[in-house]
Amino acid sequence: MDDLDLNPHRSPTAARPLLGLTILVVEDSRFACEAMRLLCLRSGARIRRADCLASARRHLQVYRPSAVVIDLGLPDGSGTDLITELANTSPRIGVIIGTSGDDGARGRAMQAGADGFLDKPITRLAEFQEVILANLPIDRQPNGPRQINDDEVKPDPIAYRDDMAHAADLLGDDVDGQHLDYLAQFVSGVARSAQDDQLADAAGVLARSRNEGRPSRAEVARLAGLVHDRLAERLAI
């Protein structure tokens, strides 16, 4: 089923330039996804969410969204694999966008076949709309001049706490190998989206330790302490 067919008479407007579109967001962070939900809402687009590659593939077997925004770091693999699959599928999804806060991620996404890229944190309405609109066909563009809205969305802090709870669960498991690499990537992405520099730095230190093959027990302990501090802060509120 093609989601565009569900709303054939809904045309984009200057105020809501993505009206009539459905965007599939493949994102494991609830905080980042909440930001995307607000951006879609303000732009007129509907949103569907998948939190891993397997969920996204199940969704795409049933629906064909207008655009897909794919986080590169997912719990069951790299988003670049899904980008490559979609870029080479016929008929092709109209717009394929990669997203990440990691250095070098833009190049990997574009090489995999993405049409565009969004650097995390994704909060500015104008930037989000421009990346989607730049890759839409002319008949899906709003008519006439469009006022640039540079507002920023502010995701609900509860979504950040949900991500911290998920990180705490991951830390409670026997984390090693790929699971530890994913933990560092997940916390780093969430912290960047929330502009939590201290937590992002701790996750980055853990990631570097892993890449260099050094013991990571101290780095894991530091990260765990910061995650639990943030959970305690939310509970106190």
Q: Can you count the beta strands?
A: 7
Question: Hey, roughly how much beta strand do the residues contain?
Answer: 5-15%
> For the CA atoms, what is the radius of gyration?
18 Å
The overall number of domains is: 2
SSE succession: EHEHEEEHEHEHHHHH
Report the average pLDDT across residues: 88
CATH homologous superfamily of the largest domain, by name? Response regulator
Helical content class: 40-55%
As for the CATH topology of the largest domain, it is Rossmann fold
From the coordinates shown, what is the CATH architecture of the largest domain?
3-Layer(aba) Sandwich
Distance between the termini: 44 Å
| Class per helix and strand makeup | alpha/beta
CATH class wording of the largest domain: Alpha Beta
Q: Order of strands across the widest beta sheet?
A: 2-1-3-6-7
GO biological process, one term: phosphorelay signal transduction system
Pfam family, one: Response_reg
InterPro entries: Bact_response_regulator (IPR050595), CheY-like_superfamily (IPR011006), Sig_transdc_resp-reg_receiver (IPR001789)
Protein name: Response regulator
Description:
With 237 residues, this protein is of the alpha/beta class. The chain has two domains: 138 residues, 3-Layer(aba) Sandwich (Rossmann fold); 80 residues. Helices cover 50% and strands 12% of the residues. The strands form two sheets. It has a five-stranded parallel sheet with strand order 2-1-3-6-7, with helices on both faces. Strands 4-5 form a two-stranded antiparallel ribbon.
Notable characteristics:
globular, alpha/beta, Rossmann fold, disordered N terminus, Sig_transdc_resp-reg_receiver, 237 residues, 5-stranded parallel beta sheet, Bact_response_regulator, two-stranded antiparallel sheet
